[in-house]
Design goal:
The complex is a heterodimer of chains A (550) and B (282).
Chain A: E1 3-12, H1 16-28, E2 33-39, E3 46-56, E4 69-72, H2 75-80, E5 90-94, E6 103-105, H3 107-113, H4 121-132, H5 137-147, H6 152-163, E7 182-184, H7 185-195, E8 200-203, H8 210-218, H9 220-223, E9 226-228, H10 233-245, E10 250-254, H11 256-272, E11 276-282, H12 299-304, E12 313-315, H13 320-337, E13 340-346, H14 347-351, E14 353-355, E15 402-404, H15 418-439, E16 445-449, E17 455-458, H16 464-474, E18 477-481, E19 483-485, H17 489-495, E20 501-506, H18 512-519, E21 526-529, H19 538-548
Parallel strand pairs in A: 1-4, 4-5, 5-6, 8-9, 8-10, 10-11, 11-13, 12-13, 17-18, 17-20, 20-21
Antiparallel strand pairs in A: 1-3, 2-3, 2-14, 7-14, 12-19, 16-18
Chain B: H1 19-35, E1 43-47, H2 55-58, E2 62-65, H3 71-81, E3 86-92, H4 93-99, H5 101-110, E4 115-120, E5 123-124, E6 130-131, H6 155-162, E7 166-171, H7 175-187, E8 192-197, H8 207-213, E9 214-216, H9 225-232, E10 243-250, H10 256-259, H11 267-280
Parallel strand pairs in B: 1-2, 1-3, 3-4, 4-8, 7-8, 9-10
Antiparallel strand pairs in B: 5-6, 7-10
Classes of the chains: A alpha/beta (550), B alpha/beta (282).
Chain lengths: 550, 282
């Protein structure tokens, strides 16, 4: 199978991420499916940044330990990543800054010759890479023209200089696939929300969720949405609830720390039965933790966040494709069941760049929001069979729409009476049942790998990619609940049928999914955990699984 | 059809509570609005939590009975979602000046077109008598039995400094003036703030003090920002001074909801936009 890995490293501020995106596009245009992992510390200038771009004939969502090409913008890159090199690794470097790269490029001289600004130095390395990898000049030309809207000619001139300098050292093969759009997980979430009918996105910046805020703010006119960045996360959730009360679909996003501040508003959403989509993109905690590194340590928090008892939906997409699909559905489900719907992501997914199939998931069943039939008096919390009360919004003729954070009667007026409290609590609990019914129509659990293997990996979220690859190498089964609340016990048990050894794979220290599964009678025999903020690589996981014993 | 403006919810305010006057004033304003042929369907009342907030149960209009301190951001969301709505926030002094002060300042800074009425009795009533940000120095409440060790904030001055376009102070025992101040606040296009002095019959019965210290500002053209600030400092909610009632400042500038109106994009156009965006990522 064709596959290739490229590492680009340099200082923060060197444009590693955009250079990585260009390399990703070159591989995309050769028919490779892409995953790009971007690693950076929490600072603006200085420090070491690197991106690993992995191209594969098949869908990919993780990295391997070894790389075929290194583009080194500084000496540190060469030193730091030594363990990733093989005999065949081609090191292309900026000769002015790096002493011992095998393919040094006189970047300064080339830029001077082309009278190009320093910022175009990365194009010199990309041109060198393209030639070393045997990529045709036409592909470089196409990609530069498509993805550098300003100054493509000059960048191409710089790239051509180095392109002509080398011979193909390690030519990579073309694949049969057509190029696909490359998007980050955060962008995929934004696109899904837009398709779900989003009217307003409200968020306070917090890595790694900020990409959604930036993307939607930049695209707000194109999509016709309102984007607000308020004073804090408490205002974020209250504003979003205000939007939804007034009949507009809203979504909010944060990471664990910011979401902590929102839990008061979450309980309000539960009590007042106001629909809301909440994106929580995890990073390593507790507290400020590792702001720019990944983690899966907030599952138990999101399951239990907020005081009091109320239904919620939690979904953890495994890649960009699923992120788009589920963000769209989360909006439907939130409005159908008038409850909070969570999209639980992490840094790996949010900031990773993936190939996205543009044609998949374009059609969807129309969702039905239960609306008021106009019969007076309107009662916001009318008790129904399903627990779901028809909605009306302020402005509707003769509807007095009262929502309330207190225990309330059907009209939304505060009631502390024991009988009403009982009745309304039961009504909200009925929505759990309704939510469980609604979820039956969705692919809540994904089984992959060797379907009759008696050893299975149990995982969730962005470790999908690495688990599937490791399972494929080792002949294992993978069982991955995408929906985590309501917990799909029966579909998981079905997917585990015949499994004798179950190994949990999670990027946290306490195996949070395993604990959740155990509460439902699903026992894991081993737990493979990583909690240093770095995602598993295929080799890591294969080694750890073998160590644990298949 | 004329609406019954009061719900059947049992009123549980203490006899003599200042909240009655504010509710009565709002009821009269709503009734006037109906008489003018304007619909009450477009009015939304947003409240915090505290004695004041029961008004959400008592007035028979759309309401969002929010959380302690959080009425203002909910109201901001409602107004942004549907700028045609008239959004009135009833909040308390502990509610808006302590728990939710950040929201109040930002609403003034943004100039969101909502009207914030602060039921300022300078004490927590519902939690049975603790000091609030506007209680005077030395106030003996249940959390400060030997008296507070901190000065109060001056909310009028604070709102002027935060950029509020309409700043006024009323008193529940001057109901005609109160009605005019709230009416003008609602009519003001932009953020309107009205600090309403009211007594707490149980924990801060200051009727005699207010009655002997208040005076009405002349209803003339707004005196400008500097003069408004000087006027606001006349009484600092602590020392013994005359208490001005009326409008401190009226200043009209583009509101947040006007500036934030989204572009209308239909569903088909949205789908096309998504396709174009994805095309550009290849």
């Amino acid at each position: 199978m064709n596959e290739v890995s490229v590492l680009i490293g340099g200082k923060a501020g060197d444009g590693i991420n955009s250079a990585g995106a260009m390399v990703a596009q070159l591989l995309n245009h050769l028919g490779y499916r892409i995953y790009l992992y971007f690693d950076y510390p929490s600072l603006i200038r200085g420090g070491h940044n690197f991106a690993v771009i992995r191209g594969s004939e098949r869908d990919v969502g993780t990295c391997r330990n070894q790389v075929d090409f290194v583009l080194a913008l500084n000496e540190e890159t060469i030193e730091r990543h030594k363990e990733k090199y093989t005999q065949k690794t081609v090191i292309i470097s900026n000769k002015d800054l790096v002493k011992n790269g095998s393919y040094g490029i006189p970047v300064k001289a080339i830029l001077a010759e082309e009278k190009a600004p320093v910022i175009m130095g990365n194009s010199a390395l990309i041109g060198g890479f393209a030639k070393a990898a045997g990529i045709e000049w036409e592909v470089v030309d196409t990609v530069f023209r498509r993805h550098i809207p300003k100054g493509a000619d000059q960048n191409l001139a710089v790239a051509k200089k180095t392109f002509d300098l080398f011979d193909p050292v390690h030519p990579i093969k073309k694949c049969e696939n057509r190029p696909q759009p490359l998007v980050s997980g955060n962008e995929a979430i934004g696109l899904g929300l837009i398709r779900g009918g989003l009217n307003a996105y409200i968020s306070y910046p917090m890595t790694p969720s900020s990409g959604i805020l930036h993307f939607l703010a930049e695209q707000k006119e194109r999509f016709g949405i309102t984007v607000v960045h308020p004073e804090n996360e408490i205002a974020v959730i209250l504003m979003a609830l205000g939007f939804a009360y007034a009949g507009k679909k809203s979504a909010i996003g944060s990471s664990g720390g910011g979401f902590c501040l929102m839990t008061e508003g979450l309980s309000l959403a539960g009590m007042a039965e106001i629909p809301l989509v909440i994106v929580v993109s995890q990073r390593t905690g507790p507290s400020t933790g590792l702001p720019t590194y990944t983690g899966q340590s907030d599952l138990q928090f999101i399951l239990h966040a907020g005081h009091g008892e109320f239904p919620r939906m939690i979904v953890a997409p495994g890649d960009a494709q699923e992120a788009r699909y589920w963000s769209e559905r989360a909006m439907d489900i939130a409005w159908k069941c008038q409850c909070p719907a969570f999209i639980l992501a992490d840094k790996t997914l949010s900031e990773g760049i993936y190939s996205l199939d543009p044609d998949s998931a374009m059609s969807r069943s129309v969702s039905f929001v239960s609306l008021w039939d106009g019969k007076i008096p309107y009662r916001r919390y009318e008790n129904t069979e399903s627990g779901i009360s028809p909605m009306a919004f302020p402005g509707a003729k003769d509807a007095v729409v009262k929502v309330n954070s207190y225990m309330h009667d059907e009209a939304g007026i505060t009631a502390e009476d024991a009988g009403i409290s009982n009745q309304m609590t039961k009504k909200r609990l009925k929505k759990w049942e309704t939510l469980i019914d609604v979820m039956q129509g969705y692919p809540m659990v994904i089984q992959s790998g060797t379907s009759d293997a008696s050893t299975a990996l149990l995982c969730w979220g962005s470790v999908k990619g690495v688990c599937e690859e490791a399972a494929s190498e080792l002949g294992l089964r993978v069982v991955r609940p995408v929906v985590l609340a309501p917990f799909p016990v029966d579909p998981i048990k079905k997917a585990l049928s015949g499994v004798k050894r179950l190994i949990a794979v999670e990027e946290n220290a306490t195996a949070q999914l395993a604990a959740l599964a155990e509460r439902h009678g699903i026992i894991t025999h081993e737990k493979i955990l990583r909690y240093d903020g770095r995602p598993f690589t295929v080799e890591d996981l294969v080694f750890r699984v073998k160590e644990a014993g298949i | 059809m004329t609406r019954t403006l009061i719900t059947s919810a049992q009123n549980t305010w203490c006899p003599g509570c200042g909240n009655f006057a504010i509710q009565h004033t709002l009821k009269n304003l709503l009734s006037d609005r109906e008489m003018e042929g304007k619909s009450l369907d477009d009015v939304v009342l947003v409240s915090g939590i505290g004695c004041h907030a029961k008004i959400a149960d008592y007035l028979n209009i759309n309401s969002f009975y929010s959380l302690h301190g959080r009425a203002v951001p909910a109201a901001t969301g409602i107004k942004l979602a549907n700028p045609k709505l008239t959004v009135i926030c009833c909040v308390g002094d502990g509610d808006a000046y302590a728990e939710g002060l950040d929201h109040l300042i930002f609403a003034a800074k943004r100039n969101i077109d909502i009207t914030v009425i602060v039921h300022n009795n300078r004490v927590y009533g519902l939690t049975t008598g603790q000091y609030t940000p506007t209680s005077p120095l030395g106030f003996k409440g249940r959390s400060t039995p030997t008296g507070t060790a901190e000065y109060p904030v001056n909310p009028v001055e604070l709102m002027l400094a935060s950029g509020a376009g309409y700043v006024a102070r009323g008193y529940t025992r001057k109901m005609d003036l109160l009605k005019e101040l709230i009416r003008a606040g609602i009519a003001h296009k932009g953020f309107a703030f009205i600090d309403v002095l009211q007594i707490c019959a149980t924990f801060f019965p200051a009727t005699d003090y207010y009655d002997s210290h208040v005076y009405e500002l002349p209803v003339t053209v707004s005196p400008g920002f500097e003069a408004a600030c000087a006027l606001a400092r006349e009484w600092d909610y602590n020392s013994d001074a005359r208490i001005a009632l009326g409008t401190f400042l009226t200043r009209v500038s583009p509101s947040f909801d006007e500036r934030m109106v989204p572009v209308f994009v239909g569903e088909e156009e949205r789908k096309r936009a998504i396709r174009e965006l994805l095309d550009a990522r290849m």
